[in-house]
Design brief:
single chain, 341 residues, 13 helices, 13 strands
């Protein structure tokens, strides 16, 4: 893993990258990562607030990286160093995955890597990115997106989401969840969620507890054929009102949220158990293996069987994941969790 450093990068993004890939969590079952701080040379790189970052590799080390991550910037229109832009172009030509957090999209755009491609940045910088780089197709409302092995993320917390997603993509949902638990952050937010939600009002404040209870109820009954109407009834709202309040609070629709949770539940079962595919599909609420396979193909670009082959931990059936806490426990017919059941 390579963190690309140059004067003006944001300390927060450097901290996120270091926390995800630079902390040893192998004692908790997380993969071992080799994170290197790469710059034009190994002299200290200044950051805002009197902080400095000490690089440990020069730019030629990027040829060895499996993943390159570019932090956001304090000044988004100041050009990055030419050697950095050249190195990023060479890395992309080699097929290396490159990710940019927040305003790091400006660095990729300066390198010409985003010309004709889709990208995202902080919602407050969308107009600036469009003005300075009109060849980029700027997506205004997402947490993170990918185009031609180039990943970009929205502001601040969305950078955490993208980093965890990249871990999940390469090492499985359990590895990402392990890191998320250590960071005390949400383990799963999809890139298609809105960047921000509506400002709370007294009414939505009152609704929030109800909607949180509905989401918990849904997680504990994923194996049932839940519909938006079912969830609205549980919330004591009309389906239209429920959908509106749900989207305002979470940034995504009830149906998309429910599907995301089903996929996440299936991923855990595939990683932690040797249950047959029809049973995995039933417990995750897909109803049939065919339906589960279709959603895996559309969302994850893989099949459930291929996912299990890549990420299975070798656990035996009977020791499975709780869908809400992510803990592992023995099978319990009386449990309220469909995955634990």
């Amino acid at each position: 893993m390579a963190l690309v450093a140059f004067s003006g990068i944001r300390a927060f993004d450097v901290s996120v990258i270091t926390e995800v890939w630079g902390t040893d969590r192998t004692d908790r079952g997380a993969p071992a990562f080799d994170l290197r701080r790469v710059a034009t040379d190994t002299t200290p790189v200044p950051m805002r607030g009197g902080l400095t970052l000490l690089p440990d590799r020069a730019l030629d080390w990027l040829s060895r990286a499996d993943l390159i991550v570019v932090p956001g910037l304090d000044d988004h229109v100041t050009p990055a160093p030419t050697p950095v832009l050249d190195a990023l172009r060479r890395a992309h030509a080699r097929g290396t995955t490159i990710a940019a957090l927040c305003g790091g999209a400006f660095t990729l755009a300066q390198a010409g890597l985003l010309d004709g491609r889709r990208a995202i940045t902080h919602w407050n910088l969308v107009a600036l990115l469009r003005a300075h780089h009109p060849q980029v197709t700027v997506v205004p409302d997402a947490l993170f997106i990918e185009d031609d092995n180039l990943w970009t993320a929205a502001g601040t917390a969305a950078g955490i989401d993208l980093c965890l997603h990249l871990v999940r993509r390469s090492h499985g949902a359990e590895a990402a969840a392990t890191i998320a638990r250590s960071m005390v952050t949400a383990p799963f937010r999809t890139g298609t969620q809105a960047q921000f939600i509506e400002h709370p009002t007294p009414r939505t404040d009152r609704d929030s507890d109800t909607l949180a209870a509905v989401r918990e109820h849904a997680l504990r009954h994923l194996d049932e054929p839940l519909t938006v109407a079912d969830l609205a009834t549980h919330a004591g709202m009309s389906p239209r009102s429920f959908a509106r309040h749900f989207t305002a609070e979470t940034g995504t629709t009830p149906l998309r949220w429910l599907l995301d949770q089903r996929i996440a539940a299936a991923q855990k079962l595939l990683e932690r158990t040797d249950l047959p595919m029809p049973e995995v599909a039933r417990r995750a609420g897909f109803g049939s293996e065919v339906t589960m396979r279709q959603h895996f193909a559309s969302r994850l670009a893989t099949s459930p069987r291929a996912y299990r082959a890549a990420f299975s931990t070798g656990s035996v059936a009977g020791f499975v994941a709780d869908s809400v806490t992510g803990s592992v426990s023995g099978s319990d017919v009386g449990s309220s969790s469909p995955i634990a059941r």
